[in-house]
Amino acid sequence: MFHKFKKKTLFTPGPLSTSYKTKKSTLIDLGSRDVEFIKINKLLSAELLKIGKAKDYLCIPLQGSGTFGLESILSTLLNKKSNILIISNGIYGDRLVKICRKIKKKFHLIKFNENKSFSKVKIERHIKKNKSITHIGLVHCETSSGILNPLEEMALLSKKYKKKLIVDAMSSFGGININIQKNNLEALVSSANKCLEGIPGFCFCIVKKKSLSKCKENSSSLALDLYGQWQGFLKNNQWRFTPPTHSIIALFSAIEQLKKEGGVNKRNKRYKKNYLTLVKGMEKLGFDTYLKANLRSPIIVSFKFLKDTKFNFISFYKELSNLGFLIYPGTTTKEKTFRIGCIGNINSKNINLLLKAIQKTLLKMKIRYL
Ligand SMILES: *Cc1c(COP(=O)(O)O)cnc(C)c1O
Predict the structure, then answer these.
(1) One CATH from 3.30.750.24, 3.30.450.40, 3.30.365.10, 3.40.640.10 for 22-260
(2) Per CATH, which fold does 264-364 belong to?
(3) Which of the listed residues 12, 94, 171 should we mutate to test ligand 1's pocket, taking the one with most ligand atoms within 8 A of CB?
(4) Helix (H, G, I), strand (E, B) or coil at 16
(5) What is d(CA 41, CA 43) in angstroms, rounded to the nearest whole number?
């Protein structure tokens, strides 16, 4: 073997730990133009629409990580007259702004603190004052802190003011129930390697059929033109450019397993149990969570660094990695934090093993916990 990897459990927001079954499903080479592969793609799109309860929508998969999907949706749905109001309370919200700047789409930005939810009053005031706003863009679960933003409330607001709502549901789709149809979303973007527990390689956009059909001229990109991608599928049921065949089979297998688990609600229960076990155990070890309890998601949790001067995150991280546990650095700007993911093919037993390893690491660092 070219390199012997040490097996580690991932407590990260994606790529994350996947099941043996999912990994094993990739042990086949499929031709991109083969009838069997074409069939899997059709079934996969239908399954994703079912998970999102989206009837009058299209599910268009796209090569690349989640950001590719976000760039493609913004580049394809927004035209010269569009003006999107981006609401951000973290890095991924800010990324929507970065994309709009880069691809030269008009936007407004309302920013909230990383540890605060959206203020509906402030948003409503901004919408009333700025009549040119056509779209609203937001992140459902802001993975940088773990905050869960009020999707349904924002969907009601969008309906009230007739704005089209575009949602980055990268780290929530498949782990938290989202009713796309009922919330009248314009589009939702997610990826194969988060709560659906597939492997990296592609993302997908679930978009209103009526809207996408009017977007032929909008994108100035070839590879990220979602309209073009759709037309490609319409023409011959094939991907326009080389598809990530192994990732596609893996997601197909992962969705079969999601169904066997009992669907999104059951998966959400497992993640919640992971989350509760984690927070309780970490608090016992002396760690404080970054967010107030009512703002947290069962997806990923931010913890504050310990005040003890002997606490050093890099050594802490390395030691846990040596023991076979991968946690995640933090990105919050005003406070030093690190993150632990609750998603992926892990359960509360894995969380308890992680907690034991953390306890061992603290002892080694000579940090006295409570
Ligand atoms: C993972 C993630 C993305 C996409 O990031 P990539 O690195 O491109 O996969 C976007 N938004 C959120 C909220 C995410 O969690």
Answers:
(1) 3.40.640.10
(2) Aspartate Aminotransferase, domain 1 (3.90.1150)
(3) 171
(4) coil
(5) 5
